[in-house]
Amino acid sequence: MRASILLLLCLTALSQTPSSLIADELAIDLQNAEASKDWIFLTSPFVYVCKDAGAGGYEAFPDVCRLSDGRLMCAFYAGYGHVALPNDQLPNGGRIAYCMSSDEGQTWSAAATLYDGPDDDRDPSIVQLKSGRLICNFFSLRKGADGQSYEGLGSWMITSDDLGKTWSVPQQITRTHYCSSPIRELSNGRLILGLYTENAKNSQGSVVFSDDGGKTWQPEVLIDNGGVQLDAETDIVELKDGTLYAAQRPHMSFATSKDHGTTWTVSKAMGFAGHCPYFLRTQDNVILLAFRLPNTSLRFSRDECQTWSENVVIDDVIGAYPSMANLNDGSVLVVYYEEGQGSSIRARRFRVTAKGIEWQSENADKGL
Fold first, then answer.
1. What gap in Å lies between CA 71 and CA 10, rounded to an integer?
2. pLDDT by residue (tens digit) across 108-133?
3. CA atoms within 13 A on the CB side of 124
4. Burial class for 131, CB neighbours closer than 10 Å (0-12, 13-18, 19+)
5. Which ranges of the chain does DSSP label H, i.e. alpha helix?
6. What is the value of pTM for the model shown?
7. At the topology level of CATH, where does 2-360 sit?
8. Does a cis peptide bond (omega within 30 degrees of 0) precede residue 294?
9. Could you give the CA distance from residue 136 to residue 167 in angstroms, rounded to a whole number?
10. Residue ranges of the chain with pLDDT lower than 70?
């Protein structure tokens, strides 16, 4: 079992961490996973969002968004493996695909291509702004001259003003920082995106923001890691008082900002490990934090991120990169991926009650 877990972690880290820090990080991940009292396995009812998007049978890194017409859109990476560089069978490499649901995530349309550039385009996130504009942000890897290596090209965005029927040409957000979370629209209209960057000596979370609806982006703002390597994904939630709260992988640290992301406090440990954090505020003002490790998990806070619940396992697959959306009946949909050959996108539905998380399983075994 240890070997299988380590292999999955290795596969996931290869594409999401463009530097040489993988080995040390994996050792920490495995140690934390085995030490956790919440490291349990279960068989979970779920629906499939997509089993095969037609790009090689590997689907990963999903993000779900509620559209203004009521439908749900799930965007995700599609390729032939965890890193799908261009080859004879897939000349443009991995691409961004999507599926739609008109019944609150019970069933999903066949996959279609959202964007397919000349490089390996991956880890998409999608948001609809108050203006109605859709923004899909992602990052890209370019195939090296040796045909095996790759270089990161930074983070990009495309926009749609017709609910995803057509999309703009790509616009670069940042050349040296990478995204794994959606753009968040703040109460004052600012757009902010959690990022990460790393080099041989240091790694940390960062943010970038726009005050003109995404037309231009200000220089990246680094979040002081307090001397701890925080080498990957960052997500942000706005608290009721306007404070921004950022969670960062892999030791799950947090930092706050009182000026809409212009400056940040030094990161502090949250007390549990996790990868690819994703925030959602429910209709009842409970803040959810979904992540990977152990497996696919979440925690929740009823006091604006002051304290967090015990770990709740969503599923026993360790791919994760979860995303969530509020449903019309007050429940929550969470989407995530499996990891491994033939990885698919899964979804589950739950409610947050006075007692905790209540899983909704009547839709098990549906989906395409």
1. 35
2. 999 999 999 999 999 999 999 999 99
3. 32
4. exposed
5. 2-16, 22-35
6. 0.87
7. Neuraminidase (2.120.10)
8. yes
9. 9
10. 1-44, 199-202, 230-231, 362-368
